[in-house]
Write a structure and sequence with these properties.
The chain is elongated, with a radius of gyration of 15 Å. The chain starts with a helix and ends in a 6-residue tail after the last strand. The chain is an alpha+beta fold. It has 3 helices and 2 strands, in the order αααββ.
Length: about 80
């Protein structure tokens, strides 16, 4: 880890994530939504709306600060 990255994490600045990491997080989250809510499996529009209703916030892991984890929060109702 570079010194700059260390200070950015210590100050609570979000880290720059590779686009592949964002894509993997998006894919995994949509898979989980479809598994938890079976009615979303066949309706791509509702699945996308449910995904957009979530708030994905990247942060450093508590156990290993060099890893990034995503916290998922829901701040509004999903519109059909």
């Amino acid at each position: 880890m570079k010194i700059i990255e260390f200070f950015q994490r210590a100050l609570g600045r979000p880290t720059n994530l590779h686009p592949v990491d964002h894509g993997l997080a998006r894919h995994w989250t949509k898979q989980r939504l479809a598994a938890v809510f079976p009615e979303l499996r066949t309706d791509a529009r509702r699945l996308e709306a449910a995904y957009r209703a979530l708030d994905l916030a990247p942060r450093a892991s508590d156990t290993n600060p060099s890893e990034t984890v995503f916290e998922i929060g829901v701040h509004r109702e999903v519109e059909p």
